[in-house]
Amino acid sequence: MRLHANAALSLSKRRVLCCRVVDERWTLTKAAEAAEVSVRCARKWVGRYRAEGELGLLDRPSTPARVANRTCEHRIEAIAALRRLRLTGPEIAEALGMALSTVSGILTRIGMGRLGRLGLEPAARYERARPGELIHIDVKKLGRIARPGHRMLGGQSARAWPGYHRQANQLGWEFVHVAIDDCTRLAYVEVLPDEKATTAIAFLRRAVTFYRRYGITVERLITDNGSAYRSTVHAPRLPAARHPAPTNPALPAADQRIDAETAIQEARVPCQSPVAPENDLSPDGRTPETRVEAANSGRWS
CATH topology for 135-295? Predict the structure, then answer.
């Protein structure tokens, strides 16, 4: 049984109190003194026990049995219908002449608090039929971490870390180049120092070689409209990608697969060391963990 937070008596104490008065013929004053409660409290529980028995010892809800100004079901249905037309809470409140707080509470209660894709057509999902038919390529820009935070090392220890007082705008960036096969979700990821056209070309060549090891021939590419992929030196040096397809600026959803895959990989890779030591860098400035080959067998909904 779930008791009230400020209940003076538990269920067993209430039963003992009532049995002393009803069965053992104790007075209310004596029974209340033994239970360390007021006579008024003892009279309440004894009266409920005599009227309802054991069920009378349970806590009753404090909500009223009837609310005179409760919103009728027809008005709630009207609110839901207007919500399906993608009207906001203030617009519905103005149209029906109701308080905004009332409309917001009803929308939350019926599960329509978030607009989302409510009232729209289902999103068009697709998936390529064969591996290599379409490869998604994008770059995720991440800021370098030169020192651990105070939550890892504490106040004084964190300040003693080399480079703690360095300005954030002096740390630079790291560029995560990601290639994902649309059919198999086989991903190839590298962390490179920049996103220039020559870097993108070299990454794509290594990605094509990587997919070839799994028997996948790259046929088409889809990228965003970044300068690295629109440069004049990019297309002639990619014989494996015969039909590069830039992203339509009006349809940014084409990059959502890359963004979602990057978020998944960030969540999967544990942070073993807050900062990569400088002596672990290779001559080209990349760490030993630069090349990551990740296979994701899941399907996008």
Answer: Nucleotidyltransferase; domain 5 (3.30.420)
